Amino acid sequence: MRLSAQRARRVHLHRTYKLAEFALATGTCRGTVRNWIKRGMPAIAGKPTLIPGRLAKPWLIEQIKARKKPCAVDELFCFACQEPVRPAFNEAEIVENRHGEAVMRGLCATCSTLMHKRVSEAQISEICLHLIVQDARRSSTLTGCLVPPVNCALGAPHEEPKVQPGK
Ligand SMILES: [Zn+2]
């Protein structure tokens, strides 16, 4: 089972665990704990195998940190490729999520998966230096429009369609 920070936090520093107890504390099975010991997690060999929490917990946290792949400001994390990648064609779009926060989205150049990342206003101006960014947040709604705006300059006054007499 995949190790998470939440599971690692359940390990107490001042406690020594048997194999089954450690598996229970971390929400994994005994086989997983044996694999961790084989990979270098500190344990006292014997019958039963004992796992000191003060040594095992830092090891688990270190494993989680080593697995992380942080994204650069112009990268998005592709869950299909399991890698941070620059969006395809160097194009990204800024949209708003349901909480009103800015989200950068783009397509993975390798597998075309749609990727998302929450960004701040300060990050957006930096992203614009590296990528072609389209800000879709400031588009007007189509409610009340007779003719929907097609790639028009946003914020420009909307013209009502002219009705020709006799038609
Ligand atoms: Zn991908």
Primary descriptors:
167 residues, alpha+beta, Arc Repressor Mutant, subunit A, four-stranded mixed beta sheet, two-stranded antiparallel ribbon, 5 helices, 20% strand, elongated, binds zinc ion
Describe this structure in words.
With 167 residues, this protein is of the alpha+beta class. It folds into two domains: 5-67, Arc Repressor Mutant, subunit A (Orthogonal Bundle), CATH 1.10.10; 76-135, no CATH class. Helix content is 28%, strand content 20%. It is built from five helices and eight strands. Strands 7-6-5-8 form a four-stranded mixed sheet, covered by helices on one side. A two-stranded antiparallel ribbon has the order 1-2. Strands 3-4 form a two-stranded antiparallel ribbon. A hairpin with a 6-residue loop joins strand 6 (102-107) and strand 7 (114-118). Helix 2 (19-26) crosses helix 3. The longest helix is centred in the middle third of the chain and has 15 residues, at 53-67. The protein starts with a helix and ends in a 32-residue tail after the last strand. The mean pLDDT is 82. The structure holds zinc ion. The site of zinc ion has 7 residues, from loops.
Low-confidence stretches: none
- CATH architecture of the largest domain, by name, is Orthogonal Bundle
Helix- and strand-based class?
alpha+beta
| Major beta-sheet overview | 4 strands, mixed
Q: Enumerate how many helices there are, as a single number.
A: 5
